[in-house]
Fold these 2 entries.
Entry 1:
Amino acid sequence: MASSSSSGLTFKLHPLVIVNISDHYTRVKSQTNPPPLTSTSATVNGVEHQQQAPRVYGCVIGVQRGRTVEIFNSFELLYDPSTHSLDRPFLEKKQELYKKVFPHFYILGWYSTGSDAQESDMHIHKALMDINESPLYVLLNPTINPAQKDLPVTIYESELHVIDGIPQLIFVRSSYTIETVEAERISVDHVAHLKPSDGGSAATQLAAHLTGIHSAIKMLNSRIRVLHHYLVGMQKGDIPCENSLLRQVSSLLRRLPAIESEKFQDDFLMEYNDTLLITYLAMFTNCSSTMNELVDKFNTAYDRHSRRGGRTAFI
Amino acid sequence: MEGLVTQIQGLSGTASDVLSLQNLLKQADDSLHAESTRLPPFLDQLDPSKHSLGYLYFLEACTAGPVTREQASSFVLTIARFISSCVAEQIRLAPDKFISVCKRFKDQVLLLEEPLRGVAPMLTAIRKLQLSSEHLTALHPEFLLLCLLSKCYKTALSILEEDIFEVDQPRDLFLYCYYGGMISIGQKQFRKALELLHNVVTAPMSTVNAIAVEAFKKYILVSLIHHGQFPTNLPKYASSGAQRNLKTLCQPYVELASSYSNGKIADLEMYVEANKDKFESDNNLGLVKQAVSSMYKRNIQRLTQTYLTLSLQDIANRVQLNSPKEAEMHVLQMIKDGEIYATINQKDGMVRFLEDPEQYKTCEMIERIDSSIQRLMTVSKKLNVMDELMSCDPLYLAKAGRERQRFDFDDFDNVPQRYNI
């Protein structure tokens, strides 16, 4: 598998496809029964059962205009392990249905999950070649790697290369960009963050809002830290000075708020104090209610002459 | 005896050796007690900083019998030296012996009528015995008693600042809070005194004890001085025994509180005169007088709620003081203590009452609130832990199960109950 394609096509991927594939994988993984082994029986068997991550398969559809290939949507397909191919009749039925609604969409290729493309995938790839002469293979890596910065999605094309004198089809990686429309962005965001759709109670809304702000601030903090580290290195002389970067940093700094007056301080501190006081009050209420319950329990348990009779229900 | 000494000297090295030494000493304890008069010379062979456990056993056996005045002073020296140089880990293996040694130390110091000599060693002893600063040992009330008798209140305050979460014996808590309350009153820290006395009065007790009764009397008086009012009902976390009986046992004080709330100084003073001997017999006359003088403060504070400006003469009339000069003195004192906000215009003798100038705009306020929030979070965590412990308590579950309302047959499940046949 070579590293870059030479076909000259530009690929645009919509986030809906990514969400679809990941949802498919998650569903299948959570629906397969977990291995019933405990740690003791594993040692008895002597064989370590590795939980094989299930692979899911499907088709991607979209539009090809000139040199630009835009992948809009995807649907799922069953993989037949005996024939090592995808379910063909189902695929054709689905293709007809989609044609009725989206006449411009073509089957552009197929998707699967895994960490890397495998040799057996070439079978499926070749089978699709009669629908589309150069199908795409979209691969999603479901393992969560916290160090990784970009999306674990790769798009492969097939190219005919001469290896050891034999012309062979191999997968080559292609670069892609993410493209989205406003409507799609809102709905994908909604689904991805699992926001309570009916508004939820005030507490869950507040919690969701604050979590969002917290993660945003955390990301901002880590990026500023990276910049700071870089600048310190430049100052010490470990890293060669790069003037364009320094200009960008200084323009960023100049955009910071420039209010430093007395009135601003006063108002800001007053508002800060108000928020702190409210938090304090909330904690107080929380503590008082815990203490109240504790005292009630204590009195019931240990006080010899406590009030007999049924406890009234709290309304 | 000599064999024991050599064993102590040999086995005081590592922790496991010390444990085996402890077993030996426990077995030899009776023989030590039997020969208590012969023991003092052996003490010199042992080094308190290395052989603390052995020294402790010997010391405890030495001091077990009745002690004369001459012996007392030498023992006081030995024990004080021992306390300052002993090793905390070894001491904690035999806490009751240590506690009894320290208690005898206190008795001897009192016998010599020099409580001041005992204060510093007792403080060191507490620090060595405590498992953590939240732990109340039996030595705390002894220490506070020595501080009270020797009138060095400031040292006591450092101990009183710590929050207590674990208590060994309930009696320790009662005595500790009572003495602590008295020390705080002596230092005029009425808020702390109120808190400590409140703890005594509302502590769980199955029967009312004398400490709680005395504490309740002081509690009423301090509450009048600090708050200007006395809540007639104890909070619901006070034991039911306390709620019913304390008020009847402290009748004169309760009546004092009710006449205080009427606001008339003349009536109050008459009442105090009438019951003077009762207050004196409880050693509370000083507090009662302070309560009476705090009445003036209360009345002046009430004036701030009605008037914006007032002349000194008017203040004197309303508060039933004798002259504007006295009124000015009172108002000045209150402004200095931060109890009211006012300015006195000396030219025409007018007093202007002001609002609280705190604007909550400063960084110091932020730090204060932030530290309070942090403290509250730790308290909340502890409370949650206690609440969970309580919910699993079998006594509680038994009673809660019995009192539940039963809605349908499924509710009759197996909660342990007693059958009253």
Entry 2:
Amino acid sequence: MEPPNLYPVKLYVYDLSKGLARRLSPIMLGKQLEGIWHTSIVVHKDEFYFGSSGISSCPPGGTLLGPPDSVVDVGSTEVTEELFQEYLSSLGESLFRREAYDVFENNCNTFTNEVAQFLTGRKIPSYITDLPSEILSTPFGQALRPFLVSVQIQPPGGSPVGRPNGQS
Amino acid sequence: MARAREEAGDSRLVSGREPSSCIIRVSVKTPQDCQEFMLAENSSVHHFKKQISKRLHCDTNRLVLIFTGKILRDQDILSQRGILDGTTVHLVVRTRLKGTLPGPGTLSGRTGHCTHLSEPSTSESAGMLARLGRLARSSPDLADFLGQLAQLLVAAPESVVQLLESPAVQGLANEKPADASHAPESSRLVQKPESALKALETLQNPARQQELLQADKRELEALKAVPGGDNAVRPVCSDIQQLLLFTPAPLGASKGHNPGSELCKEEASPHVNTDPTAIPTALAPARPLVQKVRAGEVTQARCVASNQANPGYGTGMPDVNSGQDLLSQESQQPAGRVTVASQLRPSPSALRRASHVLQQNPTRLHQLATGSPLRHRMPLLPILSNPRALQALIQIEKGLQILSKEVPGLGPCLWGPGRPHGIREPPETRGGGQGQRADSVQPTLAVLQLLHALANACSQPTQSSSSSSLLTEGCYQQDLEHLKVMGFANCNANLQALVATGGDIHAAIERLLGVPEARAPPADAHSAPPHGEGGRGRGGEGK
């Protein structure tokens, strides 16, 4: 049996605040945040991310966010593209439906964490997944929470990923 | 069972992989749920799959088990693969058996690249995008067309979207990719864009604020990467449309009887009844809002837009509503204009403008307070051309509004130190003003004061040469450089002029010329426009 192909898996990390969080967080939150992180998984030469309109994909760096602020190597996977598409479709109907988007509890980073574990068994760096709790543990974050829960992040430039017969 | 688990735990502690058949608990995680299975450590994957198929009632052929990125083969032994007690294995249940070649496979297999178009390897539900991409690959003419389409999408997106929606293109998109049919289709498609291009070019002329279009074209190159930009542009453009309706309305609402804004409103109103996905030609003012995808900038757009015209989105932004109330009260406009403001709630741009105006013209602040309409027309473009400042303003405003509402006493504490030079009013007046006026105008003013105080506090550790607030330094950096090049050597005066005119470099130059220390000859004023526009343009897309 020939060795299966190994596909590299990368995590693209974007700072949605473009440096503002690093500058303003000490004043506004009382603690230092390095950024407001949006992440996506890049595998099989495509970038996959979860936003308020569901799971989307685009060419790597192809959203309006531009190129990522940093790239983390997650590992390698044997999961083929076809299998991965099935998996994503399945995710898009269950845990990551578009309605299931929640900026704190079920956001883009939740998605990439899930996918990274599926693909490689590894999680994404904790400073990314800890971000919501970091913010919510500050009085400012708590005060803003009612307003922030309605925030929907959806970087434009991607197209939806879903089952062939219908929307995800 | 517990004993078995203990044994498994002990064995793990001792050696990690004993040949004895310990029962281990393995979690099987599917996209839907997670289930636990108890089985022997040295059982085969095949056996494992049988157990899974029994519980999930599906064929073992459809099961694909993945552990740490590796696909588990039937003949593997669990322990050899490192699957121990308590580990999690991922499961995908195929919808198709392995033998068949599903649609996504074909699509992804043909992921090619043509000009600046590349097809995302999504499933068939990608629809028109994928098919257009395939058509483009099969015909270079089509590739050019789609490239031009993308460019024109920037220039006059409305017609392009209409083109995309036209029955001919839809028919093309829905047809199965058959090589034989590509040639006639592509020729049809090419003919169509030629006429469409002409139509689009004519539409381009009446488009307002083209300078911004030039500047922002680069920002939308990502859209070019997606053929037609259908999926990407539609929601964005519908949001932009809504924003566009909002920006002229509050422009008039808060600034007084402004015939210009009336015009804007009238121009915008015809778009109200158009297809929600049609993008108004006056895309430019809202374009910077699009390009601020970084944070919740797009989310802001979506929230505001969604809040208004499309209840289906269902996301409310209560602070925008309160902002609307603030603005309408602030301006104390006649009922008609207030109605307009309430119907088309002000976007964050209105809040931004208000903040800038109030920052630069504290006397006008009083005017607003006393009810006289504000004549000063805030140039919208420079404000909109600085997405970071705008976003920072909005985010801070939101937070500070809550703060000021919740803790009104907090405001005076922050107003004292570090007052930006742009606000020349003494804090007492502000505090007095806040105390007097019990209406909700106060939070906005307090908000803005806090905002500037905060901004100042931030900017002090990072003093730039312009020595202005955080919000203005990035905004006016380009303009400041240009003024310097033109001969206005006094940076502080330049900055003050820019701040006073809201980033309008022409007005700033005039202002500077009126000041004794300005040394620039009148000739420079004439050469200012290209510089100014270039500066704004570059500033707009500067990251």
